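Example record

The entry below shows one chain as it appears in the dataset: sequence first, then structure tokens.
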Amino acid sequence: MNFWKFIQRICLIASVLLLMLIVLRLFLPLIEQQKALRAREDEVRQDIQREAEQLRMLKMKQEKLQEDRRFIEKIAREDLGYAKPGETVFRFVDEEAP
């Protein structure tokens, strides 16, 4: 009789382990998908932060363009290559190596 109780316990433990493996096998792809989605969420949050910072910088530049005459002159000289009457503009071009 003691032998049959031992067999029953082994069968019960094996059944529980088998049930746990089945549940794990069913939910493992969902867990992996959850991890991938969280990683993608972090990437998107970082993208949003970068874009928000870029927007803040553009708004600041826009305010300066509307208010600061020296900033407008600096942009005109550096980006557009403008000069005041009587000034000479020198442009240096780096030659690329073949």
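Notes for this example: The helical segments are 2-67, 69-78. The first helix runs from residue 2 to 67.
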